[in-house]
Amino acid sequence: MVDQVGKTFSNTANNGVKEISGAARTRGKVLVGNSRDILHKVANQSGANWSIQDGVLQIIKTDSLLPNEAIVVNAMTGMLGSPEINEDGITVKYLMNPNTRANGALKLDNGSIKLKAQKVGETKKGNQLTGTTVDSSNFPESDKITKLDSDGIYKVLKLTHKGDTRSQTWQTEALCVALGGRSTVSKGKAK
User: What is the dihedral of CA 91, 150, 153, 79, to 10 degrees?
Assistant: First the structure.
C-alpha cells in the first residue's frame, strides 16, 4: 500500500520506509481518498509517523529518531528566547538551521524550558505597564502536558522555517516532544 501511495507523489522515493508492520494480504485492497490520509492511517496502525523530506518518503516509529546526531539548541548556537512547554509539546525558536529534520532530534537544556503562561489581566498607568497577572490554573490536565526528557533529547514533530531575502527574519520554529509520554504541571512549574 505504501509503495502504491508513494507513487502518487511526484519526485518522491520510498527508500526511507523501513519501520512499518502489517500482515501480507491474500486479496487486493481498494485505496480511496487522499494519499496523505492513507499514509496517516497506515502509519498510525504501525505506531509510526510519516514525512517527506528532500524527496524521500520516510516512516519512522513514534519512539524512534532519524539516525543522525541531535542538534544542540542553546543561546550559544542561536536560540531565540526560551523554549515553551504547552499542551502540544515544546516549542523552540532558533536561528535557521536547515539540518533540522522532522523525526530528528534536538538537544535542549531543560533548565531553559518555560511553561507557557496565560495572561489574565494587565494594569496600565499612563504608558507604563505596572503589573501583569498570570493564571497557571488554566493549564490543561496533567495528561496533556509534555514530559521533559532527563537527557534533554527531544523528537521534532513539526518544523517551520521562516526566511526571506527581503527581510531580516531567518529562523526555525520546532515543535518537539520527549520520547515516551507526558508529565504533570504544578502551579506553573514543570515536573
Answer: 50
Write out the three cell numbers for 110: 531543560
Pull the grid cell for residue 82.
526560551
160 to each of 80, 91, 93, how far by Cα in Å? Answer: 14, 11, 9
What pTM did the predictor assign? Answer: 0.66
Q: Where are any strands of DSSP class E within the chain? A: 13-17, 48-53, 56-61, 71-72, 79-85, 90-95, 105-107, 114-115, 119-125, 128-134, 145-146, 153-163, 170-177, 182-183, 185-186, 189-190
pLDDT digits (tens, 9 = 90+) for 106-132: 999 988 888 765 544 444 444 444 443
Residue bearing cell 505597564: 129
3-state secondary structure of 40: helix
114: left (phi over 0), alpha (psi -120 to 50) or beta: beta
- The radius of gyration computed from the CA coordinates of the chain, to the nearest angstrom, equals 20
- Listed in sequence order, the residues at least 6 apart from 41 whose beta carbon sits closer than 8 Å to its beta carbon are none
Q: Which three cell numbers stand for residue 120?
A: 489574565
The answer for residues whose C-beta is within 8 angstroms of residue 96's C-beta and 6 or more apart is 161, 162, 163, 170, 171, 172
